[in-house]
Design brief:
This protein has about 300 residues and is mainly alpha-helical. Helices cover about 80% and strands about 0% of the residues. It has one domain. The longest helix is centred in the first third of the chain and has 34 residues.
């Protein structure tokens, strides 16, 4: 390998690392955006997220010359069916996440994304007949113990965390089976959700409850930003996934829930004993899971899902 090729590869690696850090950092601080817009009902924010992601996503699709891939997906009934199911999963995931942040449950949302790689492994066993190594079994057992402690001692079933983890995992599995890029896939999904989002906004406007265009220019601008905040992290993720190994990107995915956890602390969310124990068990499971991934990186990379909150 000559010096010029080596330098080029180093630049690609550096660009990939920067893109990955930007993607997971944006997903990690996304709760701040939902806190700034918490006077807007969760369903309206979700609708704006879909509506404004379409034109912003279209610009990126055109810039990256991926329109042909989008059109091919729209003409393929089987692919369109899978992407419709993926759209339902990611839409439900977004709605629960927005509701959780608005109702001071950022830590529960963070826990869900910490759990996601472990749930992804379990789905691999159940759906694809994959076999778990002993460290993976131990990690899943430790994480399950943490959830059980939270359920029994905390007095409430952690439905937010489990729903986010399960929906995101199912979404990741579906996208893994569909031969389409991350950005074109998200664009098609938002196109599928667009009529529903527009219909909901029209209904709320007719009922006189629409926050958008009600006289608060600052809030209108914030809602317009829902598009870029939805699309940009995925664009950075797509760049990182192309330039870095899956193992490297896989470890980066823990940045987002960690930042979310810190954001929860910033907004004054308190952890009771059961929640703190659950987090400790989950963190221990992640350490076991990650160490195993390092030791077996050449054989099987750390599972990675295609997008974030």
């Amino acid at each position: 390998m000559n010096r010029r090729t080596h330098t080029s590869e180093q630049r690609e690696d550096s660009a990939g690392v920067v893109a990955g850090l930007l993607a997971y950092a944006m997903w990690g601080v996304l709760p701040v955006y939902f806190k700034l817009t918490d006077t807007v009902p969760a369903l309206e924010i979700l609708a704006h997220r879909v509506v404004w992601a379409v034109p912003f996503g279209a610009l990126i699709i055109l810039f990256r010359r991926q329109l042909r891939e989008v059109l091919a997906a729209l003409r393929n009934p089987a692919m369109l069916g899978w992407l419709t199911l993926a759209a339902v999963c990611i839409g439900a995931n977004w709605l629960i996440y927005i509701w959780a942040v608005q109702n001071d449950k950022i830590h529960e949302a963070s826990l869900g994304y910490y759990m996601n790689p472990l749930v992804y492994v379990l789905v691999g066993v159940w759906a694809f007949g994959e076999r778990l190594r002993r460290p993976q079994l131990l990690a899943v057992a430790v994480a399950s113990a943490g959830v059980l402690i939270l359920t029994l001692s905390g007095g409430e079933f952690p439905w937010v965390s489990l729903s986010l983890a399960l929906l995101f995992t199912v979404y990741g599995v579906i996208r893994k089976q569909v031969a389409i890029g991350a950005m074109p896939g998200l664009f098609v999904e938002t196109l599928i959700l667009l009529p529903i989002a527009l219909a909901w906004l029209a209904y709320v406007w007719h009922a006189g409850g629409l926050v958008f265009a009600a006289g608060d220019t600052n809030m209108d601008l914030m809602l317009l930003l829902a598009g870029p905040f939805t699309v940009l992290p995925l664009l950075f993720f797509a760049i990182a996934a192309r330039k870095l190994t899956l193992t490297t990107v896989g470890f980066m995915q823990f940045i987002a829930p960690t930042l979310q956890f810190l954001v929860g602390l910033y907004y004054g969310e308190r952890l009771n004993t059961a929640q703190l124990l659950c987090f400790c068990f989950i963190w221990l499971a992640i350490v076991i899971f990650s160490l195993d991934a390092v030791l077996s990186a050449k054989k099987k990379p750390l599972p990675v899902v295609p997008t974030g909150a």
